[in-house]
């Protein structure tokens, strides 16, 4: 599917929140959205100088837009909480949350909270953003003509996940013995499964995961010579510019809702993604949701910041059970299954994208 960012519809009144917006795909997503008159653009990053420059650039071209940089270290759940607090203190609505930030093939390490670094940053930090911003998304979804969405940037590299999908017992270790791409693949599988589970539990919100393509960003340029060579050899003609890499995110964030299957995984641009191994594992998705919920149970917005939506009220309640073993009168909805897209099947050795 061809995509022309110039044909993005008018975004008046809409508020977007993009993680990892200071470079690469995140930055290009912001710049493209700013050309279509959104009400507000909020974005996170670690580099305050880059953040300030993006704010200045967008203010210069579109002074009517509220553009806010939220300094945030996704290796720290407390930092994530603080960024979410800042956002809800400034905005009473959220139309689209784009979970874009990520790391790939960094040396074995733990986050500040003690999780394997890929899983902690690529999945758990975004799971916390989703948890803390969910009441705002749900309130927005109840307003007239609303279309609240969550877009998670994943990767075809999810297929490199370990046997079993997610090694829950090892997530508080560095998993240093894993082969190249395995820890990254595990975190990107989590993006796909968690987003599909979000769509089942909260059908008022359109939640999709997207692969941006193999993109020439810092995430690739900072890899080892071997990894960069692997990416070039396996994708000689398909590496995208950061602007092109943002197309699938922009499509998922702004295209006609009727063209999107809630909970689905998409490849560029708007093409149903190819599933393999455990990317459609309903039980694993539910287990991941429950594990994440337990790990994050100590993180909440203040009552003032959350608008009185904790504990969940009728306005902010989730729509179905967290797991079949939990007591509830509501049954979980089945995971949406999409046919594999036509074309050559991606092998497990294909390198991940540069966008997650």
Question: What are the SSEs and their pairings?
Answer:
Layout lengths: L14 E4 L5 H11 L5 E6 L2 H14 L4 E6 L5 H14 L5 E4 L17 H25 L7 E5 L28 H20 L4 E5 L7 H4 L3 H10 L7 H4 L1 H8 L10 E3 L3 E2 L9 H14 L61
Parallel strand pairs: 1-2, 1-4, 2-3, 4-5, 5-6, 6-7
Antiparallel strand pairs: 7-8
Helix pairs in contact: 3-4, 4-5, 5-10
Computed structural class: alpha/beta
N-to-C order of helices and strands: EHEHEHEHEHEHHHHEEH
Low-pLDDT ranges? 226-234, 308-356
Strand order of the largest sheet: 3-2-1-4-5-6-7-8
Largest sheet features: 8 strands, mixed
Query: What is the CATH architecture assignment?
Result: 3-Layer(aba) Sandwich
Please give the alpha-carbon distance between the first and last residues. Answer: 21 Å
CATH topology: Rossmann fold
Please describe the structure with a list of short key phrases separated by commas or semicolons:
about 35% helix; disordered C terminus; about 350 residues; globular; 10 helices; Rossmann fold
What does it look like?
With 356 residues, the chain is of the alpha/beta class. The chain has one domain: NAD(P)-binding Rossmann-like Domain (Rossmann fold), CATH 3.40.50.720. It is 35% helix and 10% strand. It has ten helices and eight strands. The protein has an eight-stranded mixed beta sheet with strand order 3-2-1-4-5-6-7-8, sandwiched between helices. Strand 4 (96-99), helix 4 and strand 5 form a beta-alpha-beta unit. Helix 3 runs parallel beside helix 4 (117-141), helix 4 runs parallel beside helix 5 and helix 5 packs across helix 10. The longest helix has 25 residues, at 117-141. One of its GO terms (molecular function) is oxidoreductase activity. InterPro entries: NAD(P)-bd_dom_sf (IPR036291), SDR_fam (IPR002347). Residues 310-356 are annotated as: Disordered. It comes from Mycena alexandri.
